[in-house]
């Protein structure tokens, strides 16, 4: 008798960053021994990852200790969806992470699929952010605040006035932003963010605020590479309303790279995936929830994630909390 797949949890992959803080560790993310000295500077928790060298490892059930690539090779479309498997093969197509920005991140940009393939043999990086929490006065920079030419941009970079050209957003908990590849952006301090992105770790750093790295030297910038990657078209809207009524589901973004909904669970919410040919990733940003499926049940606390294999047709979400739902269409 064939054993049905079940909701999968993975071991978080923690990343020490010069701008990171301690909120992820305080939230219960287990710190590996090799990062014990960096407990106060954990900037990222990679929750579900297919990035080469950082492939997520299952932490529950009979597949425990197998990584995401290994189980994709065995279960193929039953795990990720037939169309997803045909398109992406063994590479899981999205990277889910939490970001704790204790300090401001660099001003940066990511290449699109074409440029990333040409330069790095990789996919590009379109991403979205959901603000899980923030301190008063927290802000983001996303995109240009007016039409900007290539020459104006280069002059601002050389003069250290780049942020004068960028759109600054004052943010609140529950805000969401869509950042297509080619968009100049920076995450300000005091932000806890859930990020969903293409499976890529390519970043072109444009400015790092004159900050020194841990070696006492300025961190590497990628000014020339970034200039070729930037989309200078003006007029895009990056902010996405993401407030859902209790018990309801609201779409935040739907793109060729991923679709993300926010679900406000207050009691019980039923989700029907019978017609969806894709995995479903759940990211709990607040509260305490339970997901019951025909393949099994799992609890989700704040800042935890769960992967529902594509062969699961229905989930009943119960409890009280905020959930991001991610899949491919």
TrEMBL record:
All residue ranges annotated as the Phosphomannose isomerase type I catalytic domain in the record: 9-121
Domain of life: Bacteria
GO molecular function per UniProt: isomerase activity
Keyword field: Isomerase, Metal-binding, Zinc
Zinc recorded as keyword: yes
Protein known as: Mannose-6-phosphate isomerase
Organism in which the protein naturally occurs: Alistipes inops
